[in-house]
Amino acid sequence: MRFQSIADFIRENDNIILTAHETPDGDAIGSEIAAYFALKSIGKNIRIINADPMAEKYYFLDSDNVIELYEESTVLQENFQNWVLIILDTNDINNIGQVKENVLSKVKDFFIFDHHEGGDSVLTANHIESEASSTCEMLYELFTEMKIEMTYEMLVAIYLGIVYDTGSFIYPKTTARTFAIAEDCVRNGVNPNFIYSKLYESNSISSLMLQSKVLSTLEFFYEKHVAVQTMLKEDIIKSGALYEEADSLINIPLKSEDIKVSIFFKENLEGILRCSMRSKGNIDVAFIAQIFNGGGHKTAAGFKSKYPLEEIKVKVLDMLNKYFVQPGND
Ligand SMILES: [Mn+2]
User: Fold this and answer.
1) Model pTM?
2) Distances 78 to 50, 68, 86, 110, 156 between C-alpha atoms, Å
3) Which SS3 state, helix, strand or coil, does residue 311 take?
4) What is the DSSP code string of 233-299?
5) Distances from the Cα of 110 to the Cα of 19, 105, 169, 256, 294, angstroms
6) First to last CA, the chain
């Protein structure tokens, strides 16, 4: 059986906490919500505990308010000795924020269920399919194999996660299987236009102001094949937007045919600097992320920087050298 190890893990444990990566995106939230209802329906006690708040556009998925935010929950006072943890949509335990210190360290066991490359998952129980478009796509197949009936609310979450992680069915890992799952979601009542408008037409005016500011920082390198955008803490404050509302801005430079790599340096309100990278074709940005203890896919990866902006920018740009400078040309 394809999903034997995770299915056994679920069967053997009745108290299961779900979490996902920091700054949870559509696939992370979609996965948590779908898994929450699926595992509840087979009699499990389920909690979702996240390190970071989700963007407002995802609130509709959690109409029952089941997602607990680490800092607002009572996690610190609890001991989780009768609980296990399933980590969704990341295979790097350093990528779950404070859930690592205050939940992962207390549970009796944990399991990683994910579709990213890299990470340190080889050391732990895991099910990882790096060819899968999204964690939501894998969950759909897991629940099918486990013969769990999928309700409308689960399918909405799964469909949203797939749309988000495939860029609306266009990124390289989109397969016929992805469409077949999406078709089943739509057959069972999911409305594609409704999900589209939740994901892409629900932005605030503040986020438009932030977008305008971030785009104005655009710089080009390597004969305009590499674009760099920067967002500082004060840009978030001045615009009144949320940090999470900047997450799609990295895709804008890629709309230009010439741009092969888009890099986005963004500082959050605590002043922590993150570097996100997207690439086209054969350019591997995951290797850069891994050098700085981050992770991701070949064409979408990121890491938290220990270095100040100007320093990390030079380091990252240097690593792209091999793709843009002809040998013997220096
Ligand atoms: Mn994902």
Assistant:
1) 0.84
2) 15, 14, 18, 17, 32
3) helix
4) HHHHHHHT--GGGGTTGGGSGGGSTT--EEEEEEE-TT--EEEEEEE-TT---HHHHHHTT-EEETT
5) 11, 10, 31, 42, 21
6) 53
Q: Which candidate, 244, 313, 243, 316, places its Cα nearest to that of 283?
A: 316
In angstroms, what is the span from residue 135 Cα to ligand 1's centroid? Answer: 5
Q: How far is the CA of 174 from the centre of ligand 1 (A)?
A: 12
Quote the ligand 1 centre to 140 CA distance (angstroms): 13
| pLDDT tens readout for residues 58-84 | 999 999 999 999 887 778 788 899 999
More confident site: 273 or 116:
273
The structural domains of the chain, with segments of one domain joined by +, span 4-200, 205-324
Considering the domain delimited by 205-324, tell me its CATH architecture.
Roll (3.10)
List the one residue out of 126, 117, 72 whose CA is nearest residue 301. Answer: 117
Q: Which two tokens stand for residue 2?
A: 């394809």
Question: What residues have their beta carbon closer than 5 A to ion ligand 1?
Answer: 27, 89, 134-135, 165
Residue 136 CA to ligand 1 centre (angstroms)? 7
Superfamily of domain 4-200: inorganic pyrophosphatase (n-terminal core) (3.90.1640.10)
Q: What is the spatial distance between Cα 192 and Cα 32, in angstroms, rounded to a whole number?
A: 20
Residue 183 CA: distances (Å) to CA of 31, 32, 153, 254: 18, 21, 15, 28
Q: Name 266's bridge partners.
A: 231, 274
SS3 assignment, position 220: strand
Residue 161 to residue 133: CA distance in whole angstroms: 10
